[in-house]
Amino acid sequence: MRRDDRDDPFDDIFSEIERMMEEMTGGVNGPGSAGFGDDAHVSVYETDDELTVVADMPGVAKEDIDIKCDGRHVTISASTDRSEYEERIELPARVDEHSATATFNNGVLEITLDRTGSSANIDLS
Asked: What is the pTM of this model?
């Protein structure tokens, strides 16, 4: 007797879960995961004085990573023989892009940036 997949009571549930996961992650080659799939993960941690961006980048060499910051966003790019990755992270606060330091150890990229004031004082003359 041949099994009819349409009779599987969980088929609709699993299809919906898969659709929602692809929508959240942009799919395997979508924004923020281009080629690294579910292995790519970025978190932002903040203190009163600084922000730290931590990105899991398995299978990437230090030499293949490019980091840019404009004070409001950090862009992390990497390219290997098998895949490409680029993610633009909006930071929760303005930072001094010239204060940035980064380390890469065992596939984990950590970027630390000093916060700046939210606004500048303007002298009225």
From this structure: 0.64
